[in-house]
Amino acid sequence: MTALRYVYAVCRPFRSALQAQLTGVAGAPPKQLTHHGLIAVVSTVPEADFAEEPLRAHLEDLDWLTATARAHQQVIDALTVVTTPLPLRLATVFRDDSGVRTMIEAREEAFRRVLDRLEGQVEWGVKVYAEPEAAEAADSAGAGRVGGDAVSGRDAVSGRDYLRQRRMQTRAREDIWQKAAAFAGRLHEKLSAFAEDSRLHAPQNAALSGASGQNVLNAAYLVPRADSEEFVELVDREKDDAPGIRVELTGPWAAYSFTGEFAEEPEVEP
């Protein structure tokens, strides 16, 4: 069975060893391929799964895609501990080592430019959610009271009460959303001033993410690794001033949001 080369990231040479038991996509351990003073972190993958046609079919399989993305991320996370990687697109595959070297030569100037910019930096993700649980709880309680009144025969009064309660609950939810949006704007301004760079992403769809509440801020911040503790403390201080608003902090990650074209759509090389 022919083995292809799966490329996770490009980085500068590093001294620290990766975890001894680290495995990547298709269960193969990653290795370093050095060319022109740069390192491509690669592993071998079977042609039967990663040649152009089968790979395109696999990318439509959510279970396969999820498992592959997790294995890919596992290697990137390990690299982030020991160096500053420039992550490549999921499923960047080449025929052999020569193909990887040709890719490095073709993009060498861009690789070096981005690596210079990202050196010593990590990415932190911050999300802000509006959480209208109190309004929803009041809505449920009000519905229960209306039902009780209807049974006792006070239909007209309970109807007016119900409509009044619905208006109050709607206003309460709108108020929570407005406060969350204003808070998110202030938080993003403060965090952007602290960070080297920032990116605003589209709010996440709750139906897809499974997260509770309404996502009103979905941002990434490029922060010097040495300043990460201070950045986390800044986010924690802001959380205390946000009743009814949930702030979610994730990281540190490799700087996916700041790598330009290198970490976008899957790429398949012949």
TrEMBL record:
GO biological process: gas vesicle organization
The keyword Protease belongs to this UniProt entry's keyword annotation: no
Glycoprotein in keyword set: no
Main location: other
Annotated Gene Ontology cellular component terms: gas vesicle
Subcellular location: Gas vesicle
PANTHER family xref list: PROTEIN GVPL 2
Family of this protein: Belongs to the gas vesicle GvpF/GvpL family.
Name the record gives this protein: GvpL/GvpF family gas vesicle protein
Organism this protein belongs to: Streptomyces cyaneochromogenes
